[in-house]
Automatic annotation (TrEMBL):
Gene Ontology process terms (BP): asparaginyl-tRNA aminoacylation
Organism field: Alkaliphilus serpentinus
Keywords, comma-separated and alphabetical: Aminoacyl-tRNA synthetase, ATP-binding, Cytoplasm, Ligase, Nucleotide-binding, Protein biosynthesis
NCBIfam families assigned to the protein according to its UniProt record, in alphabetical order: asnS, PRK03932.1, PRK05159.1
The protein's name: Asparagine--tRNA ligase
E.C. designation(s): 6.1.1.22
Length: 431
């Protein structure tokens, strides 16, 4: 007898299998039980017909409460209406644990606060499950993309002695009597590794003590940060667009059922092919002004601005050459116009906002020292980073892709808190 998962059920059409899972929902009449089963890999309907099973089996099904765990033996049959394409004609049911009555996530509508409070259970429902499975696919796609291109995965520390991205927004911790911080970005460490390995990427959690309550901000999120020696501004954008195209392709290929559960319009995703359009910051400002926005050169874009710009395109768009003053100290100013940097943000379509920030890095020692001084950064803490410009410095570039923003966009979900297993937001550190 084959024990299988719902995900792989198609291989067993016309055969008997064993499924190990949970009861998501149940409908019964006197002669038939419809068991909505889930096993983590998918959802499927099990049909228990009184006339075709022993009395024990039929009676046992009556005792099954929502979320009881059970194993089921039955025949796999095609069913074109089902998301999985199949159903199970059940022969045997073995309860493993009868769940207590009063399961919190009953099958009616609930408010999001209640669902977040019960995130440990909410994860079991089809949409949340689909989102996190797509997240897993994206995770794997990213690792594969970089691995295939010879990048080395380097894990930067999570506890850091200094601000890496900006001096506000830091979570401070007591490190044996000294101040230390939870990392905002692994970038500076990735730069060190790029000088040792050429092409590297880091992939880890990052922390920002931002008091934002938007649909796009988490206080703990995951970032992919490639860093590449001998790669300039142009080369940097090329890797980004190829990576995004690859990720989308993988999800479209391998997560069809999940995209269907989420009712995602995949035609918009199918259009996401490199190269991506570009607009300079300066031209984007003009676009906004022509569109009636009160917006001055030097200001940072808010969500409505990003959305307005993104709506002009049906692919993600690079906004390039931001004002130097707006961006982090390490970004390389454009030699032709030092007022702007050789960097870009990638803005996703459909109002999902910035998913990537990246740039060429300053590789000249004198210029870096000047920037550190201008920004009043404590130089002694950055000595190791400055060393990279003392010993075999080369032009190099990198970027950071926010994993959860990418998942939000690809899944088409309206709030970033649904895209990470246990979200950390301004008002929530539980569960
Ligand atoms: O633009 P950011 O701040 O760039 C960096 O941290 C660079 N050091 C990256 C690099 O060049 N290695 O952040 C990069 C991305 C953003 O584009 C966004 O997708 C995501 O990280 N991000 C957030 N995601 C969720 N919640 C937040 N609070 C985020 N802040 C940034
Ligand atoms: Mg940014």
């Amino acid at each position: 007898m084959n024990s299988t998962t719902i995900e792989n059920i198609s291989k067993y059409e016309g055969q008997e299998v064993i499924l190990k899972g949970w009861l998501y929902n149940k409908r019964s009449s006197g002669k038939i039980h419809f068991l909505q089963l889930r096993d983590g890999s998918g959802f499927i309907q099990g049909v228990v017909v009184k006339a075709e099973v022993s009395e024990d089996v039929f009676e046992n099904c009556k005792k099954l409460t929502q979320e009881s765990s059970l194993t089921v033996k039955g025949l796999v049959q095609k069913d074109d209406r089902a998301p999985s394409g199949y159903e199970i004609l059940v022969k045997e049911v073995t309860p493993v644990h009868i769940a207590e009555e009063g399961y919190p996530i009953s099958l009616k509508e609930h408010g999001t606060d209640f669902l977040m409070e019960n995130r440990h259970l909410w994860m079991r429902t089809p949409k949340q499950n689909a989102i996190l499975r797509i997240r897993d696919e994206i995770n794997l796609a990213i690792r594969q993309f970089f691995h295939d291109r010879g990048f080395v995965l380097i894990e930067p520390p999570i506890i850091t002695p200094s601000a890496c991205e900006g001096t506000t927004e830091l979570f401070e911790i007591d490190y044996f009597g000294e101040n230390a911080y939870l990392s905002q970005t692994g970038q500076l460490y990735a730069e060190a590794a790029a000088m040792a390995f050429g092409n590297v990427y880091s992939f880890g959690p990052t922390f920002r003590a931002e008091k934002s309550k938007t649909r796009k901000h988490l206080n703990e999120f995951w970032m992919i940060e490639p860093e590449m020696a001998y790669v300039d501004f142009e080369g940097n954008l090329k890797v980004q667009e190829e990576m995004v195209e690859y990720i989308i392709g993988r999800v479209l290929e391998n997560r069809k059922i999940e995209l269907k559960i989420l009712q995602r319009d995949t035609t918009v995703l199918e259009k996401i092919k490199a190269p991506f359009p570009r607009i300079t910051y300066t031209d984007a400002v003009k676009l906004l002004q022509d569109g009636g926005f009160e917006f001055q050169w030097g200001e940072d874009f808010g969500a409505p601005h990003e959305t307005y710009i993104a709506e002009k395109y049906d692919k993600p768009v690079f906004i390039t050459h931001f004002p130097t003053k707006m961006k982090a100290f390490y970004m390389q100013p454009d030699p032709n116009n030092p007022e702007v940097i050789l960097g870009a943000d990638l803005i996703a379509p459909e109002g999902y906002g910035e998913i990537i920030g990246g740039s060429e890095r300053i590789h000249d020692l004198e210029l870096l020292l000047k920037k550190i001084e201008e920004e009043n950064l404590p130089r002694e803490i950055y000595e190791w980073y400055i060393d990279l410009r003392r010993y075999g410095s080369v032009p190099h570039s990198g970027f950071g892709l926010g994993l959860e923003r990418t998942v939000s966009w690809i899944c088409g979900v309206d709030h970033i808190r649904q895209t990470i297993p246990f979200a950390r937001t301004l008002n929530r550190v539980y569960p």
